[in-house]
Amino acid sequence: MDATNGISKNMTARKKHNVFIEGAISPAFIADSIAKHSTKTNIGAHDIFLGQVRKDEINGKNVYAIEYSTYTEMAEEKFHEIREAAFSKFDLTCMHIYHSNGIVKAGEISLFVFVSSAHRNAAFEACRWIVEEIKANVPIWGKEIFEDETYQWKENTNK
Q1: Residues near 106 by beta carbon (within 8 Å), at least 6 away in sequence
Q2: Hey, what domains does the chain have and what are their CATH numbers?
Q3: Rounded distance, CA 29 to CA 121, Å?
Q4: What pTM did the predictor assign?
Q5: pLDDT tens digits, one per residue of 57-107
Q6: Contact between 95 and 115 (Cβ < 8 Å)
Q7: How far is CA 42 from CA 34, 38, 134, in A?
């Protein structure tokens, strides 16, 4: 470990990124992110995970939206740890993670994970690993808002 910054010597210190977007993540934002990679000719594969809000029926009521909230400082630190671990664990060229904060309606995107690598297996494996780490370790809470304006706190599952 480097005593000055607490990062192992085989792990490059990367700048922390602002992960949170207010409201839904738009298709245009996703398309623009993909388009920016066309000039990076060392990339042979991309894998993308898009988390979309479902219109679940719970106890006879339909979910209209989810309102996401977080302890931002802690969540940003956890995202950074996941990002650093993914670069250390997988042979990635680049990675982008964005998560919604605030209200996201059913059918809209709330999580965007985009990884790139020279070869497909690294991209596939990394993307799944990152999503599972986010679900298990990042302090983000979702309040399911029903069409009748009542709500309940969302329970995460590993489905």
Answers
A1: 53, 54, 55, 62, 63, 64, 65
A2: 20-153 (3.90.1170.40)
A3: 25
A4: 0.87
A5: 999 999 999 999 999 999 999 999 999 999 999 999 999 999 999 999 999
A6: yes
A7: 15, 10, 27
Q: Which of 120, 97, 115, 128 is nearest to 25 (CA)?
A: 97
Is 51 within 8 Å of 109 (Cβ atoms)?
Answer: yes
Compute the half-sphere exposure of residue 78: CA atoms within 13 Å on the CB side of its CA.
20
Question: What is each CA distance from 142 to 18, 35, 136, 145, in whole angstroms?
Answer: 19, 30, 14, 9
**Amino acid identity for residue 36 in this structure:** K
Classified as helix, coil or strand, 77 is helix
